[in-house]
Amino acid sequence: MTDDTSWGRQRAVPSGRLSRLAGFGGLAAGVAGSVIGEGAKRLAAGERPSLDELILTPGNAQRLTDRLSHLRGAAMKMGQMISMDANDMLPPELAQILAALRDRGNFMPTKQLDGVLKAEWGKDWRGVFKWFNPRPIAAASIGQVHKALTREGELLAVKVQYPGVANSIDSDVDNVASLLSISGLLPKELDIEPLLKAAKEQLKEEADYLREGEQMRLYAKRLAHDDSFVVPSLNEALTTPRILAMSFEEGGPIEDLVSQPQELRNATFEKLVRLVTRELFEFGVMQTDPNFANFRYRKADGKIVLLDFGAARDVEPQVTQAYRKLLEAGLDADPVRIKQEALNAGFINEAVIERQGETLDRIIKIISDEMSRDAPFDFGNREFVPVLREEGMSIARDKGSWHIPPAETLFVQRKVSGTAMLGARMGAVINLRRIVEEMLEIIPA
Fold this sequence. Notes:
Blueprint: H1 17-44, H2 51-55, H3 58-71, H4 73-85, H5 92-98, H6 110-121, E1 129-132, E2 138-139, E3 143-150, E4 155-161, H7 169-183, H8 193-206, H9 209-222, E5 229-230, E6 243-247, E7 252-253, H10 262-283, E8 285-287, E9 295-298, E10 303-306, E11 312-314, H11 317-331, H12 335-345, H13 350-371, E12 377-378, H14 384-396, H15 407-426, E13 429-430, H16 432-442
Parallel strand pairs: 5-10
Antiparallel strand pairs: 1-3, 2-3, 3-4, 4-6, 7-9, 8-11, 9-10, 12-13
Protein name: AarF/ABC1/UbiB kinase family protein
Family: Belongs to the protein kinase superfamily. ADCK protein kinase family.
GO molecular function, one term: protein kinase activity
């Protein structure tokens, strides 16, 4: 969720199915026209470009970004997920422009906002508040957040869902998948239906603000005795399926800590790593959206404010156990066990081992060497990432080894990878091995 709307502008969200479909149609037409024009130009210059080179131009990536940010909802959410989850593997032009989806947010015109509030609270909704700021303090893919003060003096953050978002999830996911498929990012030989089904289910859960309010309350209960975190309090009376009302909690962007002393960055990031291990091995529930804006830093007391619990989901016991065994093998720096546990967890398949065994061994060695050292690990040092990218791309070019891990594992891995990306943004340096060892010992299997 983006938290400074000085960058944004009022732009009505297409709420009807036809208007949203037309948006995708316009995007496809624009991309097709660009491909024809760029192809003719490069052929005239004596080049023989491939189709994916013609599609993945900066201009087309910009078209994709603009359209997804306009449609918002599941369309924009998937664009954000792609840019965060696969950033190190995407073509640089596409990665750079898609990343803008994490920092871009248009907001609803006042008239459209008032229509949603009247539908949820009734036409006299203004009588509940001393003031309600119509300009949002944050905007995201599914809703935008407003600051308000009730007649009773309660300062609130009110998340208002964009109209039409919940009803368009299925079609939006399918349309984005089609766009990615024709771009060459999703190979036709890869069966992505299970992943698309899981994505639709999670997005529908995220669009249910009553569910999110309950998840927020449960997280507050789990962390009641942990002084490191703050979870907003739910205002039940004002919360509806499309409006989430909660206490307003002060805090600044956590990634801004990059300018603070190293010790503060390290201590703050260590708290987040410990939280991820508790989610995975103790709670059995994980907030699986690692968007940086979901974590705020409260300078007054050094606490981390946790936001956005729509993506909170149960972690299946077999997934928890698979991660524990994989981490234990990694701590022992045992490449044979690491490979076997990765296979058991579904991260890899037999085809990869048979066809790309040497490359896989090199990848495992790089990761094992980096993560298992009993020494401070510098998350900001990404020197090994290009090596991993090159090794990974050599596997990706082998169609016979393509594989998608189980969806429930991917959701967890998204949080793990996203947390590592936050550590890189903050420039955190912590002894990862010591922390993992300690948490595995504290939390019984």
